Automatic annotation (TrEMBL):
Record InterPro entries: AAA+_ATPase, ABC_transporter-like_ATP-bd, ABC_Transporter_VariousFunc, P-loop_NTPase
Protein name as catalogued: ABC transporter ATP-binding protein
Keyword 4Fe-4S: no
GO molecular function: ATP binding; ATP hydrolysis activity
Domain of life: Bacteria
Organism lineage: Bacteria, Bacillati, Bacillota, Bacilli, Bacillales
Ranges where the ABC transporter domain occurs: 1-229
Keywords, in A-Z order: ATP-binding, Nucleotide-binding, Transport
Length: 284
């Protein structure tokens, strides 16, 4: 079953547009959503959650259309955006008591088990929580109302490497039994190397690629050639940089001719993002 099925979302702001954004997330997996600043990640996530009105397109969550089943689906979605900047002077337990009223499937036992697991003290004030604690608190809330789909906007940003690693382990544990699916946006490509099953890459409002992680990476090769070889391959490169040895460039694997005497390696996600972003600035 698909946890998330996004088809041809279009959304126009004055200076920005989501263009035919489509991707699918299989139930029980983690999808990393990457793209440069301003590429459209948050707008896409807000569109999925109906926090912003789309111009056209279809959003299906767990086989139900969001526009006809929003209230029902919101019970099954756990989302987290930015900071918690309300109820700052109140204790965790006060905020929880307000939030839990909205959820039919709220389970106190599950909630307390997650507070314990995440080392959260319900008597702490929201203002006293570190960034990592806030993310964990949101996860505890989402999981206590039985959320089956977690949609998280940059949950690991602002976390130190240990806290990040810890959170990524939690993500992996959550999807282990195949019931929960996670979509999360990030700039930290090493997070995805560690825990994502699928990658969706958005650039300037368009999906460049959405695929299983290994397949996503395998679609590209990083090539290193001598200066005099550049003309042989230049037109096929997504972008390239000149350096003292010659050049390094990114190419679609299908466009690479192995008979050329040019060394090729498998890029990492960061290199894919950097060279794809350069496409727009012409060849640097
Ligand atoms: N409410 C709005 N009205 C007009 N333009 C908006 C609005 N919200 C976002 N935008 C524009 O849409 C574009 C995409 O923004 P968005 O926040 O989706 O990007 P992002 O990929 O999440 O970026 P970042 O990684 O910096 O968080 C930006 O140019 C932004 O200025």
């Amino acid at each position: 079953m698909l946890a998330l099925d996004i088809r041809n979302i279009n959304k126009k702001y004055e200076d920005f547009q989501l263009k035919d954004v489509s991707f699918q997330l299989e139930k029980g997996y983690i999808m990393g959503f990457i793209g440069a600043n301003g590429a459209g990640k948050t707008t896409t996530i807000k569109s999925i959650l109906n926090l912003t009105r789309i111009d056209s397109g279809e959003i299906r969550i767990m086989d139900k259309a969001m526009h006809t089943h929003e209230l029902e689906l919101k019970q099954e979605i756990g989302s987290a955006f930015g900071d918690i900047n309300f109820y700052m002077r109140n204790k965790i337990k006060t905020l929880t008591n307000v939030i839990k009223i909205f959820y039919h499937n709220w389970n106190d036992e599950t909630y307390y088990s997650y507070l314990k697991k995440f080392n959260l003290n319900e008597n702490k004030k929201i203002a006293e929580l570190s960034t990592g604690m806030k993310v964990k608190y949101r996860l505890a809330l989402a999981l206590s109302h039985g959320a089956k789909l977690l949609i998280l906007d940059e949950p690991t940003s602002g976390l130190d490497p240990v806290a990040r690693d810890n959170l990524l382990d939690i993500f992996q544990e959550l999807v282990e039994d195949g019931e929960i699916s996670i979509l999360f946006s990030t700039h930290i490509t090493s997070d995805l190397e560690k825990c994502a099953d699928y990658i969706t890459y958005i650039d300037n409002g368009r999906i460049i690629n959405s695929a299983e992680k290994e397949e996503f990476i395998d679609a590209y090769r990083l090539v290193n050639g001598k200066a005099e070889q550049l003309d042989l391959i230049k037109n096929d490169l997504i972008s390239y940089k000149k350096n003292s040895f010659g050049f390094t460039g990114l190419i679609h694997t299908q466009d690479f001719d192995p008979s050329l005497d040019i060394k090729s390696t498998i890029p990492n996600l960061e290199e894919i993002m950097i060279y794809c972003a350069k496409k727009e600035d012409a060849h640097v």
